[in-house]
Description:
The protein has about 350 residues and is an alpha+beta fold. It has a single domain, classed as T-fold (Roll). The chain has 9 helices and 13 strands. An 8-stranded antiparallel beta sheet has the order 1-2-6-7-10-11-12-13, with helices on one face. A 3-stranded antiparallel beta sheet has the order 3-5-4. Strands 8-9 form a two-stranded antiparallel sheet. Helix 2 runs antiparallel to helix 7, helix 7 packs antiparallel against helix 8 and helix 8 runs antiparallel to helix 9. The radius of gyration is 25 Å and the shape is globular. It starts with a helix and ends in a 12-residue tail after the last strand. GO terms for molecular function: metal ion binding; transferase activity. Pfam families: ApbE.
Amino acid sequence: MNPKYLLILTLIIIITVGFAYVQSTSEDNSEEYRTYNQTRMLMDTSVTITVVDNNEVHAYNSIEDAFMKMERASNLLDSYNKSSETYILNENKEIKNASDDIIYVIERGIYYSQISDGAFDITVKPVLDLWASKFGPDKPNIPPTENEINNTLSLVNSSNITINDNTIIIGKNMGIVLGGIAKGYAVDRAIGSLQENGIDDGFVNAGGDGRYIGEKPDGQEWSIGLQDPDKQAEPITIINARNIAVATSGNYERYYNKSASVSHIADPRTGYPVSHLISATIIAPTAIEADALATTVFVMEEEKGLEMIEKLEGVECLLINSEKEITRSSGFAKYEQLKD
């Protein structure tokens, strides 16, 4: 054989064998795709982050990064944390050089107030504080007077928030609370962190409010059981979740005073706790949207809330009224598991 061709053939064999060796080594070092998860207490609730990965170290590093992003968002937006931007804004009525996080969340809060005719309003803090002052240990445990409520209602109006460049200003005696939207934003931040780390499949669940991306290792969708208000063993329904967020607001989990049955969710328009719904579950593209709309619909009258949801693209709801009657939006059923 011509020496030139022999040299070329030898190089081809070396390259081929080398490629096969690298490929074989890579396959030998790879792990099977499986789920990895961690659960921590954050934002006064249990938060679980689950990812699908074929590398344990990468999986847990990604989960750690996601928790860090959630904690940062929570620390910025918690109105009761004295070092948070929200607390500083409430104390000083102004904050300069505000972070993009709080500006975005406040702007979204103003938007949901606009589309709901005030049923959602992040300036409801004076009303919530008033009710909290009336119910609890060593409190009178009697409702506030009509005059007290009217005085606080005059402070509730998110259109009085001014955002100019990176400066946020609220009116005298006003206060904002982001509890109806901050958890959803923190979940979205965690999902964004996972995706930046190359995680395509997994979920973040914060006290029942979560966002789900991709699928399980077996190719199936993630499953979410909606709790029965009576806390029976069987869920009301099971949602198949892929690339959606789900959030629920209800008055059967937290009360200022259980014997008085005072809900922690007050109507910003009236100043009184709401009681016509037991729970409102929202399916939406993002967790911040699902979180805010769950609170919004819970406050609104059942028919008006359903009417608003039907107008929003990619959003569905399931409502349970005080008579324990269940109402679904027109597209909710497509997310539910078929019963045997």
